[in-house]
Amino acid sequence: MLLEKTNLNVILLFTNVNTHYWLKESTMSKKKQPHTPQSYLKSGMALKLPVYKCYVPEHWREIKKFYLVFSRLHVNGNVTTAAILVDLLCTGIKDAFCQVNVPMFEFERLVGDLQEGIDDVMAEVSHDLAHNIVYAALEYGSDNGIRPHEDFKWAACIIGPDSDDIPLIEDIPFGENGMPLLLLEGDDPKEAYFLRQLKSHVGEGNFRVMHQDDYYDEGYLDEESDEEEEVDDEINEAARLLLESYDVANWDRADWEQWFEGVADLDMSDIKQAFQFQAILFFIYNRFIFRIGSTEFDYDALIGPPIEWTDEPIETEYGVNLPEGLNDEIVELNQVLKDGPTKRQAQEIRDRLSQLIQEYPHIPNFYNLRYNAIRALDGIEKFRAEVTATLERFPDYFFAKLDLIDAMLVTGEEFDLADVFGGATNLSTIFPNRNLFHASEVIKFHTLMIRYHLHLKQQVKAYAYYTEVVDLRLDDRLPPPVLKELMETCSLEAIAVLSLAEENPAYREELIDVLLEEDEDYE
Questions:
Q1: Residue spans of beta strands (DSSP E) within 320-462
Q2: Least crowded by CB within 10 Å, which of 81, 118, 134, 252?
Q3: What is the pLDDT of residues 214-238, one digit of tens each?
Q4: Residues 344-376: tens digit of each pLDDT
Q5: CATH number, position 356
Q6: Domain that holds residue 36
Q7: Do 55 and 96 sit in the same domain of this protein?
Q8: Residue 488 lies in a domain
């Protein structure tokens, strides 16, 4: 199902709204000024018309960016229509157009033109579902800090306001892989605005950006998506087996010299060669760049002694255990926050946690959940203020300290890590009387340490924290955007080393000497 660019005829049809037809219904004296579609919509008269038909692509849940058609029927058989480009991936209401009092054939031609622009069928849906999709998209875009298209105000005069009278439908998908995905179309004039708002409201590393053509070329919305997913799984499995079998650590000098001779001729479109190249990049970074870079600081002091972790609830001095009977509710609320709540959900969570805090003011986890709901509602600045207030009440609350670091990284604020943890750089130093930690503590701490050192351009230290997560067998829980940023940084540095080795034979020999050294710790 490939959402293609909107048919130009459709845009022209919407842009040149015909006022002739609805004027036929009016009995105006020549002295009165002719009405415009805008004045008609502004008057609220369209909302008095019965809802006619609503359309979305049949596979809208998979597409997530599509045109939705909402219409109302006039007594003369004409139709007033709103067509909204809904973007459940990121921006909410991407575009909106209106037709006022046009003949039925114009309306049917609109739906037909929209269907021609996609490899899918425009399916009729209920008024309630269409209403929920539009306002859920509006909330999601707002949560990401993005205003709806300026013409949505006219479309809203046809759809009607959000209302509790409309049954709530909650199973509407947002984003991709748990985060916003911004699709850019060519030289999008709003690109800078979108990125600025996402960084402010969602946070660097918590969203993805792709060009629309690349997104579609990758087959994300193909009709045969299930089959392609199976193919992708096979490719990923093949790549994993290839990396495991591609034992570059056992290469001898002749292997390395032969590889360097042929590196310029590698075909990156060949999946085998591409994955081999990636394996070699990581090997070079770990064995050469990281080994040399880590000599500039005390690795053991930075990472600290080994620790143990568990997924089971543990009791700590800052209070993780919850009152009996509330555990399931709190787990559910926490999951909603992680998945990205709508504004309505965030408001409900905030209000519920405010009630719980009145009953249990001594439990810092309730404050944590509330200020994360506030972040979804009011953005990073309000979030930071609430985190600071929580730390004033619970000065040793570990997650609030981590959230303060998160807020400062998102806003670009310069700070010294020593001001947060008093110079401590690992969990053992922060908590000298503990050896057992919850997995959530370990992941959040190391994630923030990786982000902090990447922010300071201290890639080697960031990689050191990553190696600790790998040693603890928790690397599969790292947030994908953070892991992606780290791996891209490592790959770029390794490529720079390869470029020097290609240009300088003496440097190449020194590099090979290091790569051939035995390293018992290398995996």
A1: 436-438
A2: 252
A3: 665 544 444 444 444 444 444 454 4
A4: 888 889 999 999 999 889 889 899 999 999 998
A5: 1.25.40
A6: 8-184
A7: yes
A8: yes
